[in-house]
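step: validate -> pass
step: tokenize input -> pass
step: predict -> running
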Amino acid sequence: MLKHRSSALPIDPALKNKLNGFLSVFAFPLLLAYFELVFHHSTVGAFSFGSFLTMLLFVCCYGFLLALLHAFLTRVFPKARIPVTAVLLFVTAVPYLIEYFIYLQFKVFYDLTTVTAGTADAVGGFTDRIFALLFGVRGLIRLVLYLWPFVVYLILAHRNKRKPLIPTKHPLLYLALALPFYLLALFFVLISTPRLSTYTNEYSFQTAVNQFGLSTGIRLDIKKFINGRGVSFEGDTEVSPWQPVVDAGSLIQAEIDRENQPEEPEPEPEIVYEPNVLDIDFAAKAAETTGTVSELFDYVAGLTPSLQNKYTGLFKGKNLIFISAEAFSAEVIDEKLTPTLYRMATKGIQFTDYHQPASAGTTGGEYQNVFGLLPTDSGESFKDVVDHNNHQIISWMLNDLGYTGWAFHNNDYTFYSRDETHNVLGYSNGFMGYGNGMEEYVTDQWPQSDLEMIQGTLPLYIDKQPFDIYYMSVSGHSGYSTSENSMSDKNWDAVADLPYSEQVRGYLAANLELEYAMEYMIDALEKAGIADDTVIVIGADHFPYGLDDAAVGGSTPYLDELYGYTVTNFVDRDHNRLILWSGCLEKMDPIVVDQPSSSLDILPTLLNLFGLPFDSRLYPGRDVLSDAEPLYFDMNYDWKTDLGTYIAEDDSFTPVSDDVDIPENYVEKIKRRVRNKINFCYGVLDTDFYSYIYD
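step: predict -> pass
step: emit ->
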């Protein structure tokens, strides 16, 4: 009888042993390196050589430790060898998948706090969007790329149960291999200034992922969560020591008068501006307290306060309407397309170099607008203040003066826990969103109409002066196709012929609803005769990240199209435009703020304009109309001054022009100042610092 012979090619036993030996040592390091390369290519693009090498060394270390865990578990549970290995393969892939889909939607990486804080809201409010991301072409490709090791392992393990497909070595071998790779990775960190800064005193999750890979970013984030963020301050003065300031205009006019008069006239009285301070001895407070609170008091005691100026109290007693505008950008403002927003931007106080740093999505942007602080606890920052003393913000100060207050939002009132957070902001009538009153005024659609929200809520307060109103809009929310965005569909005819891609036109159409809302609001204020007595502030929550939900590899083609230039760093990405308007400003000479500014500057600027008592040393931002030095900075430790721009990721400083004179050690001085300000933001949130100041 003929015997059946297997058609499979014979494998040399020696080669098979070598292959098994290689897999037993390098299977998990290779797996992590593969995941990192796929992830980086799918998000921000290619690594620099130094970052690639550092990432590779770190993941080899983690891979050997993962192999150690695998060896331990399979020896403890030998009968569960296959499920243990499968679980490890699957769990290792999950963080990469989660962060990929986050980046796909938001164009930033979210740290662990933001991911865990936003999961319930995302699942509850954006289920359709999540399914679209997961089961779209790009989503399915990434699912395959990350899950095929898990699936292939299960298939092969089922066919061959006699021997492990990933054999193990002695645990001490993995430890012996992990340590030198870790030390070598640290060496490459130490020899690079930007990587060393990110690894130590200028850590940010976003930059850490870019420079070291996702696995190291997660490790550093876990380390920060467990150990806490140590708050320390380096010696620095923000402005030159305070001296009485003479109004420059008065001096110039006096000189002109002196030249035109045959006889020397009486000298014009000098205008001396007082510092914006409270009657608090911060040095004494530092001595009375301990720990981080003491360090915070010691830090602010060493700062120089900014001075009052000719605009101090300009808005005293006026009404205030503050709008955090969903995904708003400077490019929405157009003389023909959005004439009301254009009027407000050009006839109010003009901010020509304004930025809205994006680090924690909408809730992070709101936190910056309201509290004048960076969201150092990421997506949890706003929630953290629910049990804090918040009297340092303008809404509490106006409430203490008897203002009628409301906070409004035209989407789900529980989203981002706004039913808790927005009820501790000092608005006398609390917070109303869709589900606790707003449904009476706006249509149930996605996204809801800003115009309908203004039309419905304006009668609640317009005859109850003085009033202080806060709106969080939603009409500008992504996505921007007419099929998924009711505002893009509603306003499509107005943008149909514009010379942009369909995606950008959809974005502009969605934002037209804010234009129509402002047109309605100003018309109503003027008819009521109170436009001159009302101040309107419009600030974005973040850049329009939803424009490029189809982009890969770090490209932002639609954002570039909207901006008119290629975005290469976070400073360029987060440029925006603040609108600060009142009818009374249209009767004055233009006020132009052409120095770098940001959302952190809104609060101290408004406090000065409304003539409210505040201490300028207690805010990391500045009154932009004061003598304080201009400084924009973000959570990535990038910054911009009137002399130039610094990008932390590659440790580069670019002067505003070739002929500008940069003082000695200027970059290091500003880097130190930025670290101090960010540490101040951390300390304030961690300790409820303002409760030690306000009763």
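step: describe -> The longest strand covers residues 404-412.
step: cleanup -> pass
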